[in-house]
Amino acid sequence: MNRRLLPRLLLTPAMATLFLWMIVPLVMTIYFSLIRYNLMQPDQTGFAGLENFEYFVTDPSFGTAVVNTLLLLGSVILITVVLGIAIALLINEPFAGRGIVRVLLISPFFVMPTVNALMWKNMMMNPIYGVLAQVWMFFGAQPVDWLTDHPLFSVIVMVSWQWLPFATLIFMTALQSMNHEQLEASRMDGANYLQQLRYLYVPHLARSVAVVVMIELIFLLSIFAEIYTTTGGGPGDASTNVTFLIFKQALLNFDAGVASAGALFAVLLANIAAVFLIRMVGKNLDK
Fold first, then answer.
1. Closest among 119, 117, 178, 182 to 151, alpha carbons compared
2. Cβ(280)–Cβ(73) under 8 Å?
3. pTM score, whole prediction
4. Which residues, 6+ apart, have CB-to-CB distance to 59 below 8 Å?
5. Any alpha helices (H) in 58-201, and if so which ranges?
6. Which CATH class is domain 51-282?
7. What is the rounded CA–CA span in Å between residue 83 and residue 263?
8. Which residue of 181, 182, 230, 253 shows the fewest CB atoms closer than 10 Å?
């Protein structure tokens, strides 16, 4: 057998799987976005051109959904990166019970999004019997109805709580490869902890930060379960993101054409955000 042909044959199953898993759904989404296809009106199907895209971007909820998506994305990434680095540095030093603490810190990441949302909705943020309400009443303050008064902030807290262990785990792993001789040399030269943090720890964690940002970016743009389970996108459109807006078009309005156009817009938004954030975080990685 030709030596050049063998590698191509070995790659064929992987390429075929990739084609069926990614390319075919993308082509179908593009196709549906260009036709008029409402499941409640199957007899009115026809070519629509860019009509679906125009309808989606002129939706009264569109602007709010985009802003909420960017706020959710930026806030969760900022919270998880900053607190993740802080917690990783805190538990990097040896102390009694460090193994148990690490396991407890990582465990929230394995909670399913729907379970996470229900836990925060019923156990933590309920204005009558929630933990936060009891704390407020203990100090003589009026409990806050978080999901009604601060819906987007509540979703940010839920998502941050679940993704913080992931960031912490990545940063803990990166700190294990830290050159301890450099740290000892810096201490001997009189460097304090803040100077070590600025010139040693943060540069060493730069690549890990880029990894956390890229992975979270992929998943946070598709946040849906937390919003659907707790706020339903409301009150009004206060906690609606692009993903939930697509859901409303697809499963509430039964308009597959507009929903497909929204999905393509989400792909475009994801690529723009990815390029911006990755360049911002990783611009000094190769220096």
1. 117
2. no
3. 0.82
4. 245, 249
5. 62-90, 98-106, 113-119, 131-138, 146-149, 151-176, 180-188, 193-196
6. mainly alpha
7. 32
8. 181
